[in-house]
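Training component of the fellowship. As part of building independent skills, the fellow (R.M.) carried out the full modelling exercise for a liganded target. The chosen ligand was acetyl coenzyme *A. The inputs are recorded below so that the supervisory panel can assess the work.
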Amino acid sequence: MEIKKYHVKLKLDNILFRNCEFEDIPHVMYVNRATLPENYSRYTFLAIWRLYRDMFFVAIDLISDKIVGYVMNKVDTGPSFFDKRKVVSKGHVFSVGVLKEYRRRGIATCLMALAFKAMKQRRLHEVFLEVRVSNIPAIKLYEKIGMRIIGRIKRYYADGEDAYIMAALMDDVIDFAENVIDYLVKNSKVVLSNG
Ligand code: ACO
Ligand code: ZN
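Fellow's submitted model of the complex:
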């Protein structure tokens, strides 16, 4: 299927999306280790899950019954990226990853759409993240769904690489997210535990 306006291609045979559950955490940690050098303790995953499980999603391959992707998010309070005079609560995309064999099928696009919708439900007006300046696949993904580079942090990563800060106003990305989620709901590809 194709959502023309956003040029989104989804090839999701036997993939299901749902909120992350407690029992999923070890499997999410496995996908995180397999996909990113930024790894976190079980405690960190659990702390994020406890506080922000409404914004924590997994993609499951129904054939192997394995978690193949995840996105987890937090809320940060600080100066708005779009109006420096304001202090706001912002959705912070903390980590997203999809196993190599499952890439370029739209899985990360769907995970990000679910994250945006959950942020909107929390009345967050902006969303941001950090990404390695060399991480072209991720930067392209974020640009495709409406995020823009708005800053750069020198030596943000442990190995000395810089990060771009990418951000968007919720109003500018929510149409895309709702289109993707409508498709997922209509095609029984998503189970949402929080309504
Ligand atoms: N090269 C160029 N563009 C790409 C690539 C790539 N390798 N991968 C994705 N894109 C762009 C394309 O425009 C793509 O649309 P298209 O396939 O129609 O051309 C669009 O992004 C959507 O791609 P998806 O299929 O939704 O993305 P995917 O499920 O493959 O996951 C991800 C992308 C998460 C970046 C994956 O490559 C991955 O897990 N990488 C390693 C982990 C990582 O870098 N995570 C992000 C770190 S930053 C952070 O977590 C905040
Ligand atoms: Zn971050």
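The panel noted the following from the submitted structure. The radius of gyration is 16 Å. The mean pLDDT is 94.
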